[in-house]
Amino acid sequence: MMRRIVRILAFGVAASLALRLAPWPPAAGAYLSLSPLLGMLGALAVRAVTAWTLVSVAVLVLVWLRPRWFCRYLCPVGLITESAGRLNPCARGRFARFPMIGRWLLWLMIGGAILGYPVFIWLDPLSLFNGFVSAWRSPVSPISLALAMGIPAAVVISLLWPQAWCHRICPLGAAQDLLIKARQGWKRSRPPPSSDRSISSFRLDFTRRGFLGVVGGGMAALALRRTARGRPLPIRPPGACDAERFAGLCARCGACIRACPPGILKPDLGQSGWTGWLSPVVDYSDSYCFEFCNACTQVCPTGAIRRLALETKRNRSIGLATVDRNRCIAWSRGRHCMACQEFCPYLAIDAVSRDGVKCPQVNADMCRGCGACQVACPIQPVKAITVAGQPQGTVMDLEQFLLDQTGN
Amino acid sequence: MDRRHFLQHSVAAVAGAALGVRRLFAETVAPVSRVVAVHGTDIPGMLSRGVEALGGWPAFIRAGKPATLKPNIAWASTPAQAANTNPVLVEACIRACQQAGANSVVLPENPCSPARNSFEMSGMSAVAKRTGAQLYALESDADFVNIPVPRGTVLRQVEVARDVLQTGCLINMPVAKTHGGAGLTLSMKNWLGSVRDRGFFHREGLNECIVDCNTVIRANLIIVDALRIMTTNGPRGPGRLEAKDQLVFGTDPVAVDAYCATLFDREPFDIAHIRLAHERNLGCGDLSRVAVDHLRA
């Protein structure tokens, strides 16, 4: 009874955080940070530990003390799949014949994480749940709904093979099972080491399958990282790690997409290749990346998007704007416009005088690729100034630029 | 009508016409417009001094009717950056309107930055909260009225904020800044924050559209915030600010803008939209024919 109350409460908390009902932006990623899979494998892959990682370490300790504690209390997907499984009582126990997919997924994931590309990390249950809940943000589109497909798939599997999701597929479930085994082994090894069988069986289990899985994951990571090479770079959220690793590190949880106030983050459908499917890309067709906002950088559970302070984010370039002089009415028709310069928050558009008419030119040292110019450009339907993806970097501080400007 | 009456009427008509003509001639020599520049730092004091010089608040505010204020609240930037109209000035003006009997004070704005952030960062939300004025972002169809522009050269019709067109008193409160496309942004350019489709203006000829727009929107009173003027990187900034410590009052937008242009050391007629507006008789941009009163408060 107690457990049911806690579960339903946890479900409610997870859903309301995913829906961003809490006003504090980082809250959108708070529940996700409970998952040791996202937090720890993410930290391993980006080789950086944050305060949120420590939360997942705490969860891991609890799971060590109480077997499958996470599944039984905190996991909203566990609640959903269990309830679905109960609808098909005839199929009870059928899951026992289901292959141990989860354990293999976990080994692959760990192997990938060591090489910066935790493959299959998007199968994390909290990530699937978050993607499902946050996809219903209006306006709902087929693209945004693609993020929501994980939970329906899990439900279908649970209807056919009740309990198979948690016990056979979920990599976080498998991780907890391994912990149980390890704990048993550890406990038995503490009294005088008379019978070594259980420990050795655990060790064996790791050495054979685990080794194969980890090596396989590493090789998959190496192969998948290559797919990003030689492609035009999509515009990623500020703080995103390099293009090679991003597609692997992104858990497709949709937290950043949900967190973005102007709604310019969209799930990718091909820009970054098939490996980057559903990862967040920036789309400037409606709005731009606000200069006073760092919401998306505060919610990522894996560290695919680094946490950036607002000041750091303001100096982070995510792309570069270019003027198409054939389209621009100042360059091609001698009209007074300069809307792009007017809207640029970073003074990155210079005016070049041409027959008494000011024409825009991008100052690459100052441009952050925020897209304000592209949105402001009055030319329809294809804008005369557009932003293209670039490797992210740090550009000159606005205050410093102003000082230099007034100094001259 | 008998002969006597005909003669009486004729004499009266001729005399009247003669007087009228004399007045007309007299005006070509004497100033045709008046601008009041109040210097100082006490903003509420400067405000009442300037309005007093133009006839006092009762001359503008109609008791029991709403008053619409159009400060510039275009950008998500702080009062220190002076890209938006000074909030202290706006607050003083709202309170003066309320005291003069306006039944409500409305501030409609179509900002360039996201509305919520513009209103918060500019300090205008706080002002509206303190004074009870209605500050809102122009967004829905119902906020605008589509009107024809009979004297327009490029603009044939334009969607303007309903509260700008239908009000008891319209007060234009721009802040003086440089501007990429228009050279300077003063009172005439400020209406771009009251229309819906700014993109059209930029696409089809910014200066012509600014002037066309001013043929259909005319403020009862103009108060230009020239306390600190942005001389570089306008209109958004951050740019260099020069303290001019002035508020500029008037009812003729061309004369007010012409005077303000001189604060930037610019010839008024070098600013295309001021020259065009003068040529099209929207007001007098020729400062030799504008009486500029300098007051202190």
Short description:
The complex is a heterodimer of chains A (408) and B (297). Chain A is built from 19 helices and 6 strands.
Provide key terms for this protein.
heterodimer; A: 408 residues; two-stranded antiparallel ribbon; 49% helix; elongated; B: alpha/beta; ten-stranded mixed sheet; 10 helices; 35% helix
The number of helical runs of chain B is: 10
Based on Cα principal axes, name the global outline of chain B. globular
As a percent range, the share of helical residues of chain A equals 40-55%
Q: Describe the largest sheet of chain A.
A: 2 strands, antiparallel
Radius of gyration of chain A: 25 Å
Estimate the global geometry of chain A from the Cα principal axes.
elongated
Report on this structure:
The complex is a heterodimer of chains A (408) and B (297). Chain A is mainly alpha-helical. Chain A has helices spanning 2-18, 36-46, 51-65, 69-74, 76-86, 101-114, 125-134, 142-146, 150-160, 164-169, 171-189, 197-227, 243-249, 255-259, 310-314, 329-333, 339-343, 372-376, 398-407, and strands at 265-267, 280-282, 316-323, 349-354, 357-362, 385-394. Chain A is built from 19 helices and six strands. Chain A has a two-stranded antiparallel sheet. Chain A has a two-stranded antiparallel ribbon with strand order 3-6. Chain A is elongated, with a radius of gyration of 25 Å. The relative contact order of chain A is 0.12. The mean pLDDT of chain A is 89. Chain B has 297 residues and is of the alpha/beta class. Chain B has helices at 3-29, 43-53, 87-99, 115-121, 124-131, 162-165, 198-204, 206-214, 253-263, 272-279; strands at residues 33-39, 66-71, 104-109, 134-137, 144-148, 157-161, 169-173, 175-179, 183-185, 221-230, 241-250, 290-296. In chain B, the strands form two sheets. In chain B, strands 1, 2, 3, 4, 7, 8, 9, 10, 11 and 12 form a ten-stranded mixed β-sheet that branches. In chain B, strands 5-6 form a two-stranded antiparallel ribbon. In chain B, helix 2 (43-53) packs across helix 3, helix 7 crosses helix 8 and helix 8 packs across helix 10. Chain B is globular and about 75 Å long.
